[in-house]
Amino acid sequence: MQSSLIGVLLGGGFLYFVAWLYWIIRKEYGMGFGDVKLLAGIGGWLGYESLFQTVFIGSIIGSIIGILALAIGRQFSWQAKLPFGPFLATGATIWLFRNFF
Questions:
Q1: Neighbouring C-beta atoms of residue 26, cutoff 10 Å
Q2: Which of 18, 53, 23, 55 is nearest to 39 (CA)?
Protein backbone atom coordinates (compact mmCIF):
# COMPACT_ATOMS: atom_id res chain seq x y z
CA MET A 1 0.00 0.00 0.00
CA GLN A 2 2.71 2.47 0.99
CA SER A 3 4.85 1.52 -2.04
CA SER A 4 1.88 2.17 -4.34
CA LEU A 5 1.12 5.57 -2.84
CA ILE A 6 4.76 6.63 -3.11
CA GLY A 7 4.77 5.27 -6.69
CA VAL A 8 1.76 7.37 -7.68
CA LEU A 9 3.27 10.54 -6.19
CA LEU A 10 6.77 9.99 -7.56
CA GLY A 11 5.67 8.75 -10.98
CA GLY A 12 3.17 11.47 -11.64
CA GLY A 13 5.23 14.13 -9.92
CA PHE A 14 8.42 13.36 -11.85
CA LEU A 15 6.87 13.61 -15.32
CA TYR A 16 4.77 16.59 -14.26
CA PHE A 17 7.99 18.34 -13.21
CA VAL A 18 9.66 17.47 -16.53
CA ALA A 19 6.65 18.80 -18.50
CA TRP A 20 6.52 21.95 -16.37
CA LEU A 21 10.26 22.56 -16.77
CA TYR A 22 9.97 22.15 -20.55
CA TRP A 23 7.11 24.66 -20.56
CA ILE A 24 9.18 27.16 -18.57
CA ILE A 25 12.16 26.83 -20.94
CA ARG A 26 10.43 26.54 -24.34
CA LYS A 27 6.98 28.11 -23.75
CA GLU A 28 5.30 25.18 -25.52
CA TYR A 29 3.96 21.80 -24.51
CA GLY A 30 6.52 19.03 -24.85
CA MET A 31 4.58 16.24 -23.18
CA GLY A 32 0.94 15.44 -22.81
CA PHE A 33 -0.49 14.83 -19.39
CA GLY A 34 -1.60 11.36 -20.43
CA ASP A 35 2.04 10.34 -19.96
CA VAL A 36 1.99 11.83 -16.46
CA LYS A 37 -1.16 9.89 -15.56
CA LEU A 38 0.20 6.70 -17.14
CA LEU A 39 3.42 6.79 -15.10
CA ALA A 40 1.42 7.58 -11.95
CA GLY A 41 -0.71 4.50 -12.70
CA ILE A 42 2.36 2.36 -13.31
CA GLY A 43 3.82 3.54 -10.01
CA GLY A 44 0.54 2.72 -8.27
CA TRP A 45 0.30 -0.77 -9.72
CA LEU A 46 3.93 -1.82 -9.65
CA GLY A 47 5.24 0.33 -6.80
CA TYR A 48 7.84 3.05 -6.74
CA GLU A 49 10.62 0.49 -7.26
CA SER A 50 9.57 0.12 -10.90
CA LEU A 51 9.66 3.79 -11.87
CA PHE A 52 13.34 4.36 -12.61
CA GLN A 53 13.73 1.27 -14.76
CA THR A 54 10.41 1.89 -16.52
CA VAL A 55 11.39 5.42 -17.53
CA PHE A 56 14.93 4.34 -18.41
CA ILE A 57 13.88 1.38 -20.58
CA GLY A 58 11.06 3.39 -22.18
CA SER A 59 13.42 6.26 -22.98
CA ILE A 60 16.04 3.98 -24.54
CA ILE A 61 13.49 2.13 -26.68
CA GLY A 62 11.76 5.39 -27.64
CA SER A 63 15.07 6.97 -28.62
CA ILE A 64 16.02 4.03 -30.81
CA ILE A 65 12.61 3.91 -32.50
CA GLY A 66 12.56 7.70 -32.94
CA ILE A 67 16.00 7.80 -34.54
CA LEU A 68 15.10 4.91 -36.83
CA ALA A 69 11.80 6.54 -37.80
CA LEU A 70 13.55 9.80 -38.65
CA ALA A 71 16.29 8.00 -40.59
CA ILE A 72 13.88 5.81 -42.56
CA GLY A 73 11.40 8.61 -43.19
CA ARG A 74 14.16 10.88 -44.50
CA GLN A 75 12.31 13.87 -43.08
CA PHE A 76 14.58 14.90 -40.26
CA SER A 77 13.09 17.56 -38.04
CA TRP A 78 13.80 18.55 -34.47
CA GLN A 79 10.08 19.32 -34.17
CA ALA A 80 8.98 15.73 -34.86
CA LYS A 81 6.53 14.40 -32.26
CA LEU A 82 6.55 10.84 -30.97
CA PRO A 83 4.18 9.56 -28.28
CA PHE A 84 5.96 8.48 -25.08
CA GLY A 85 3.11 6.42 -23.57
CA PRO A 86 3.68 3.23 -25.60
CA PHE A 87 7.34 3.22 -24.59
CA LEU A 88 6.46 3.73 -20.93
CA ALA A 89 4.05 0.79 -21.17
CA THR A 90 6.74 -1.32 -22.85
CA GLY A 91 9.26 -0.41 -20.15
CA ALA A 92 6.77 -1.32 -17.41
CA THR A 93 5.97 -4.63 -19.11
CA ILE A 94 9.66 -5.51 -19.40
CA TRP A 95 10.18 -4.59 -15.74
CA LEU A 96 7.18 -6.68 -14.73
CA PHE A 97 8.28 -9.82 -16.57
CA ARG A 98 11.90 -9.42 -15.51
CA ASN A 99 11.11 -9.05 -11.81
CA PHE A 100 8.05 -11.18 -11.23
CA PHE A 101 8.45 -14.18 -13.50
A1: 9
A2: 55
